[in-house]
Write a structure and sequence with these properties.
The structure is a homodimer. By secondary structure, chain A is α/β, with parallel strands linked by helices. Helix content of chain A is about 45%, strand content about 15%. The first copy, chain A, has a six-stranded parallel β-sheet, with helices on both faces. The first copy, chain A, has a four-stranded parallel β-sheet with strand order 7-6-8-9, with helices on both faces. Chain A binds a DNA duplex through helix 2 and helix 4.
Chain lengths: ~350, ~350
DNA sequence: GTGAAAGCGCTAACAC
DNA sequence: GTGTTAGCGCTTTCAC
């Protein structure tokens, strides 16, 4: 049986109406749901719909005020495991709440970011979720503030996930997780094992997430009365390659350390490989810890001690609060907790 | 300076027109681009636009025939590294080609899948890309064929990525990569090292991707004149946990093998930790290989020998061909090559 | 119950 | 150059 010969490409509600011998309104009504329509007409209409394989144009519905709402998720690069986790949470929750989910990758370009947000505003997205840390500059605040305002004035809402909050009064929701606290706990755990010289493989020095983790590293030292050696905190970015390079350099320079804490698990993965390449054994020769608890962390060898961040939950939460809010609500600030998960990559210092 | 007091939420082109003291068409024209408008009016209009922070409703534009086209990408779970890679490719290429990109996760549920496709058809998506293998059943073909037809008849197009092609004549584009060939080459590489009993950690036995890889495993054996032992091919799924479990069971059952080939890198990762947990060393005690060449493969220890699949390229290609096709073109079939990348997890068999 | 008409926000053809 | 009108595909009064 050949499936329909006419070109449904331009099949409109009127075409269906014509075929069923009724008016467009009637078609709309039977499709719409529970409006009283005689059984006979309903059947005829449904048959026409089926025969023509008709689906109402979602854009037209939207413009008529009955569309499926949309939610936008803009991130740097879906390829990063923690971003992917969040995206998953966002996507699940969005569809659970009956929303369509647009995702855009900015590739870290701020210009792309504002372009995307503008597009989403044009799409009349119910909310746009921005994720991924960055530098907390005046320029950032101004730009982001502007996005927040225009979204808000369009009845939408901006959600900042793991990125610098704006000043007070901005119509945004910010959801963060505790970078400093997590790093503090993690580093404390390392220090307790007797390590005194722990190398920190950090991120970009103006990146707020990196800063938070670095602060935790520092604070944990000071809490135990040890002043961290300046040459032990290195800066790169959050990639695997950065960890690999930094670690190799540290080894070449014969820096003196017995443990290393990486700003992310990716960095830790690179560092681990560098360590292995240098013939060092973890944790026998040196202890290693990461941050994020991406799924792969436990398949590293040794399984990585790290800090768990509830990324997926973060994503879900982001959409839930975004969609639950009244548009012009002022700022709201959620802080999710993190906790260290102890595996095998950190061992007590043996003299 | 306070940003605009009126509620732009319902700010329409007519509002802008009123404020600028012109007609809506004029506003449309200055916004539209290059239509001749006097400098004076243009300025006035632009000022009004700025003051009201106006953006044209993309849905309304779309319905009027000048919208940003949309492209849909539906996958099982963005959290899988290879999916993420493809998504990245798709997303980049889509935005490069001026398309918006919708992504939906089906969580492996076929019902969700058809629902999403229906939605995308309603959205008048220019194309929908379906990725992720599955069982090649009659039900699958029928269902998918139906989706392809209705998409085609709506002027859109279905692209199948790494999943079973339909019969001939279906209006779909299918892009695959060479599972069998890759597995063949990989297993040949293992056999050449002297291994005779190589364990295969496969996927679901009705999953076409898994089947392809298994066929390659088998073929490589036969090509060397060795009949693979039946008890050495195990079935699970493509997750890390599956690899872990299967490996542990194989060890418990004291299966006799000197190398293991996993159907995916994730499976290999799980298997690797199971091996480590059992106190075995790779590749000294047993060799191990994966498939996919996800970024993490080289940070496993030892770095994983695997088959490279150009996932990101696959994604880009998918959108390029999808968008480049005329709607009702019959089937087209692209096969991307794969190649094995030799790292450290496979070693020659020592007697 | 059902149809005609108005309206959603926009663009485009057609005046002037 | 610019305004008026019609029309995109749909929903929703408002009549009958």
């Amino acid at each position: 049986m050949t499936r329909k010969s006419e070109d449904a490409s331009r099949s409109t509600i009127r075409d269906v109406a014509a075929r069923a011998g009724v008016s467009a309104s009637t078609v709309s009504r039977v499709l719409g749901g529970v409006y009283p329509v005689s059984a006979a007409t309903r059947t005829r209409v449904m048959r026409a719909v089926r025969e023509m394989d008709y689906v109402a144009d979602a854009r037209a519905k939207a413009i008529a005020g009955v569309g499926t709402p949309t939610l936008a998720f803009v991130l740097e690069d879906i390829t990063g495991p923690s971003f992917a986790l969040m995206a998953h949470g966002v996507e699940r929750e969005a569809t659970r709440l009956g929303h369509l989910c647009l995702v855009c990758s900015t590739e870290g370009d701020a210009r792309h970011e504002v372009e995307f947000v503008e597009m989403m505003r044009a799409q009349r997205a119910a909310a746009v979720i921005l994720v991924g840390g960055g530098a907390d500059t005046a320029e950032y605040r101004e730009r982001t503030r502007r996005m927040a305002d225009s979204l808000a004035s369009a009845g939408s809402r901006l959600v900042l996930c793991g990125r610098p909050p704006l000043g007070p009064g901005a119509p945004v929701t910010v959801i963060e997780y505790d970078n400093e606290g997590g790093a503090y706990a993690l580093v404390a755990h390392v220090l307790v094992q007797g390590h005194q010289r722990v190398l920190f493989l950090g991120g970009k020095s103006d990146h707020t997430t990196a800063q938070g983790r670095e602060r935790g590293y520092l604070a944990a030292h000071r809490a135990r009365g040890v002043e961290p050696a300046e040459e032990l905190v290195l800066h790169g970015d959050f990639t695997r390659d950065s960890g690999h390079r930094l670690m190799r350099e540290a080894l070449e320079q014969k820096l003196d350390f017995t443990a290393v804490v990486a700003a992310t698990d990716m960095v830790a993965a690179g560092a681990l490989t560098a360590l292995h390449e240098a013939g060092l054994s973890v944790p026998r020769d040196v202890s290693l810890a990461g941050y994020d608890d991406i799924p792969f962390a436990r398949d590293l060898h040794p399984a990585l001690t790290t800090v768990h961040v509830p990324y997926e939950e973060l994503g879900r939460l982001a959409v839930r609060t975004a969609l639950g809010r009244e548009p012009n609500t002022p700022d709201e600030h959620l802080l999710l907790g993190t906790h260290v998960v102890v595996r095998d990559s950190v061992a007590p210092l043996k003299e």
